[in-house]
Amino acid sequence: MNKIVKRTLMASTCVFIAGSAVAESEVEVLHWWTSGGEAAALNVLKEDLSGQGVGWTDMPVAGGGGSDAMTVLRARVTAGDPPTAVQMLGFAIQDWAGEGALADLNKLAEDQNWDEVVPAALQGFSKHDGNWVAAPVNVHSTNWVWANTAIMAELGLEQPADWDGFVAAMQTAQDAGYVGLAHGGQAWQDATIFDSIAMGVGGPKFYQAAFIDLDPDALGGDQMIEAFKRMETLRGFVDDNFSGRDWNLASAMVANEEALFQIMGDWAKGEFINAGQTAGEEFQCFRVPGSEGTVTFNSDQFAMFSVTDTTAQDAQMTMASSVMSPEFQVAFNTVKGSVPARTDISDAEFDACGQLGMAQLAEAAANGGLFGSMAHGHANNPSVQNAMYDVITAHFNGEYDAETAASEMVTAVELAQ
Fold first, then answer.
1. CB 126 within 8 A of CB 298
2. What band does 21 get if pLDDT is binned at 50, 70 and 90?
3. What's the CA gap between 52 and 57, in Å, rounded?
4. I need a surface site. Which of 184, 208, 224, 253 has the fewest CB within 10 A?
5. How far apart are CA 88 and CA 94, in angstroms?
């Protein structure tokens, strides 16, 4: 029996014996995990906390890749009523910590040795001024392609080895009546694709210069123009009904044998799993051609907002402790599609894509190929990120050609800094 389940059952029994069926404390959690696979993963945490006598008040805000949730959060904080725990990404954590809004997790981190088991790249977002302010749940890598095995077999396709092979596979699928590339027309989804394409075009040095250092020569140069040209190619393989489609519905198109490929982070795997499919059987995973050897990542983390009530503080620490336990990291990430935020966890319980992801993450970290994703708030601050979103989406929707888009990228980033 899973250790979390054992602990949950034991704790539930203790609560029952004590004559109390009501949780002694509670966390109110703001998050954007609302798809089927995400909800299934989140239930792992809810059940674990319930077994420890901690109740859960759900505050889901769907859409926007988390941006909608951050808008709701700002309104709550402005009203003087912040949630006790919030799902956050990247520089958003740093911004809230800089405002002095987040609780100090240092003692718990020291007691549980977080410094030794969390990769330095993640700690850069989990800590502020050397202090732990968030508990990382996972590492998602974003430069994945998800493929339908049955369509590939029907059309005699192999996993493409390069960009030209990738394009040829989509063309073959489109000619056979399938959608070549499943996609949802939302700014963060457009940026997720662009993120991977840019890495594939220019590699780590270009990615560092353009998206992290914000070098105008990289932002407006030939490699950026080529990245936009490749986006124009991809636009030709997207169906006409893509506008506004949620990402998980695009994943369903691949799962349901309507589309050949989807470029999306590995949270997409949670949707395939939730549909009863198995990695290496009904679906396949591989890196966006050209980006092999690198991993662009984001990390879902739970930040705890400062509260004065000691019962609420205890509930926060219980939640943070559960999030960082090895048992939870395995139980959650095998459902979610991501890989653990801890480096001391075996891959034995993970599927083929999970094991591949863990191995490639370790390799990229060791070889200088691990980069925080621009599209997911891990390369630069939100104002710069949103400025890039605007240009990428405008181009994808036909407002700019590639050369103009690269020029606009330089201007947008300059104004956002």
1. no
2. very low
3. 15
4. 208
5. 10
